[in-house]
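Supplementary Methods, section 5.1.

A reviewer requested that the exact input to the structure prediction be made available. We therefore reproduce it here, unchanged from the version used in the analyses.
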Amino acid sequence: MSNLKNLQQAANVAAGKASTRKKSVEAVALSTQSASNSRNGKIAMTFHLLEDFKRSMRLVQAHQGSGCTLEGLAEEAFNDLFSKYNVPTVSHDN
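The structure derived from this sequence is encoded token-by-token as follows.
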């Protein structure tokens, strides 16, 4: 297997391409870092809902246009639920 990797690296060098392994490791590190930064102070919540919920969420998202995320719609929906039951809402700025 290492001969195959060496052959691929030699072909990349001959074609004037830089090593793809080093770039991919750096790209993964950067994407992991930015994802973890955007998730600071947040938790993951998983739900199993009927497929129609997803379709309706996507329709609302399409009507709202660019910049509308499923996360934003979920925040809005939870805050509406919190208001209905007279519990504190959460600021969207957090």
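The mean pLDDT is 83. These observations are discussed further in the main text.
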